[in-house]
């Protein structure tokens, strides 16, 4: 009588993947929660760092986990989402998910940058306002906003406290948007943007470039950088 076929042993990395999935499926590790570090897992399973790294790398590629540079590895949820059909305040977008928005002000200045003046169709020698803000969903950075603003429409722009009021909220109050043009592209961030958004080297951004009009004039020209692995755009007509 032939001997029964012995099942092949399950590789160690696959066992770790199965363990992580069970922890998540059973609710032991919740969406957004940081999981144990590679060092903690290799001690728990008595395997090599390479084995643990492979398991976590594959789970990240399968969007079960998400890595944030300098912070650790977290249980992934749905991607952060923004709508294209309607320009909404990012603070409202985040609040609609039951999350907390906060903003870090990186730059507020006057500028005579030629490209900015051309984008806003202002005369050379005029000034434009320039802001650079970093928006967070809970404590995760999801948008780096680089904005040029027409001071003839929003003369008090630089006086606003954008830690508590978003540019969208201020401009909607002062001179509501009449129309917009936008372009979405995938781009590699420079080192500064990558650091601000806590992205791994080689990860791309989803970049939204948008101009808006108010009172028949170009109001603002903005570039919005989003981590491609943690963000998506959606809409319906």
From TrEMBL:
It comes from Microvirgula aerodenitrificans. GO terms for biological process: L-histidine metabolic process; negative regulation of DNA-templated transcription. Pfam families: GntR, UTRA. The gene is hutC. Keywords: DNA-binding, Transcription, Transcription regulation. It comes from the Bacteria. NCBIfam families: his_ut_repres. Residues 10-78 form the HTH gntR-type domain. This is Histidine utilization repressor. One of its GO terms (molecular function) is DNA-binding transcription factor activity.
